[in-house]
Design a protein that fits this description.
137 residues; mainly alpha; 0% strand; hydrolase; transmembrane helix; TIKI1/2-like
């Protein structure tokens, strides 16, 4: 799986360099959607691969299965489990220091799809509100 992932990454980079492949969204798109709190948009759809372009129609069936296994592993290990740990840490800090104010910042990836840090905190009974860019807290 590691060799497959490395080969796919290298193929993607070669295609980008040659101009035969373009990323479907720009960094500016990511920033705009993040700032607008629109993290359920197509860019952050929970069905989107965590490893871009590994899962696509041009892969042979056996390689597509490998790509899906890798994507599932990354989604579970790098997103869901980390979100659970981060959510528990936030909860623990809030409960250990109820008289203090906190500011928590997370990368956009931790707000993608289902099982986000926000979902973890809401399951614990916390009310979480999005603060758009430029809005005073």
């Amino acid at each position: 799986q590691v060799v497959f992932a490395l080969n796919q990454t290298l193929l993607q980079q070669e295609s980008l360099r040659a101009g035969s492949f373009q990323i479907p969204y720009t960094t500016e798109d990511l920033i705009k959607h993040y700032n607008c709190g629109d993290l359920s948009s197509i860019i952050f759809n929970h069905d989107t691969s965590q490893v871009p372009n590994f899962i696509n129609a041009i892969l042979p069936a056996h390689e597509r299965i490998t790509a899906q296994e890798i994507d599932s592993y990354f989604r579970q290990e790098l997103i869901y489990k980390r979100n659970e740990r981060m959510g528990r840490r936030v909860k623990d800090l809030l409960e250990e220091h109820p008289d203090k104010s906190f500011f928590f910042a997370f990368g956009a990836g931790h707000f993608m799809g289902n099982n986000t840090v926000i979902d973890v905190l809401r399951r614990e009974g916390y009310e979480v509100e999005h603060t758009p860019a430029g809005q005073a807290i």
